[in-house]
Amino acid sequence: MIHLSKIEINNMFLQLFIINRSGGLVFTKNLSSLSPTLSTNDCLRLGSTFHGLHAIATQIAPIVSSGIEKMETDTFVLQCLQTLTGVKFVITATPGTTEINELLHAIYEIYADYVLKNPFYEIEMPIRCDLFTKHLDRIVMKLSSVQGRRKQP
Amino acid sequence: PNQRQLSNKVLDRMLFNFYIYNRKGKCLLYREWNRPLNTLSDDPEEERKLVFGMLFSLKDLASKLSPPSQSKENLHTIKTNTFTLHHFESISGLVFVLNTDPDIPNLNQNLQHVYSNIFVDYIARNPYYQYKIDEPLKCPIFIARLEEYLFNLPSIKKH
Fold first, then answer.
1. In this structure, what are the phi and psi dihedrals at residue B22, rounded to the nearest 5 degrees?
2. Could you give phi then psi for residue B128, rounded to 5 degrees?
3. Does A38 touch chain B (CB under 8 A)?
4. Is B74 exposed, middle or buried (0-12, 13-18, 19+ CB in 10 A)?
5. What is the distance in angstroms between the Cα of A67 and the nearest Cα belonging to chain B?
């Protein structure tokens, strides 16, 4: 029987979105049972909306700036890694989750290895690469189990 | 004079600007202390609308991304690599926005204090000031108390 301890409930990855350089959603995955259920259309809309807002942040900025890297609310946090090629990796998680940076960079690595190097993958298109999903599950599991064991500073 | 020199030095690095919006998105107050970049400097009204619009859409995004929960997904901060935007929305729909240096931690509670203590006292409950929900705020004592409070925040003074 799987027993979710209190620590695990408070330190969980919720969702992953990968957005291409034109703002279209190429990949989305729920990373926990607590994630909100969103229809495919909702996800597509969220991806494009976030792409736009990420750019608007540079326009309203009082100082030369990148787009939105982090968003914090009462109930969740969102972190975005934008690569030099314009691809955005977006993770939502419950507040207090550590290791989001590590997860984002690990996902970027497996994206480069198992999506971009896949000869059948067309760039900017939805990701349907078996090896990518397999490795994604592996690293999410690994980093989720690290939560709670690391002491909060 | 020494105190003023110190606060000017602090401002140069810590606080950029500040907005108050009413429920409908009209900017009631804008204060600027340090702004190296203003992409929309030739159209300030457009800039104010853009900030409100961005926050409005981000709040909508947050309500969809939030895990099912009892509490509201109040937006606290938006961070980029060079600045942090702190946000607070009152129950009446008044929006307070403060842009600061990225090292300054979450000021959501402090903005709540700006609303429930400084705004309520010097604007809403001020017998000498006629507060109209659709008009920009023209109350010097409110601005003075607001700046006094913000400039003396511990997380800002510490830097």
1. -90, 180
2. -95, 0
3. yes
4. middle
5. 6
CB contact under 8 A, B75 and A61: no
Provide the percentage of residues in chain B whose pLDDT is more than 90. Answer: 77
Alpha-carbon Rg of chain B, whole angstroms? Answer: 16
Question: Of the candidates B34, B47, B66, which has its C-beta nearest A73's C-beta?
Answer: B66
3-state secondary structure of B132: coil
- Do the Cβ atoms of B77 and A76 come within 8 Å? no
Condensed to tens digits (0 to 9), the pLDDT of residues A36-95 reads 889 999 999 999 999 999 999 999 999 999 999 999 999 999 999 999 999 999 999 999
pLDDT in tens, B118-143: 999 999 999 999 999 899 999 999 99
Tell whether B64 is within 8 A of chain A (Cβ): yes
Rounded Cα–Cα distance for residues B78 and B85 (Å)? 5
DSSP per position, B39-108: TTTT-HHHHHHHHHHHHHHHHHHHHHHSPS-SS---EEEEE-SS-EEEEEE-TT--EEEEEE-TTS---H
pLDDT of residue A147: 74
Going A43 to A84 to A107 to B85, the CA torsion angle's sign is negative
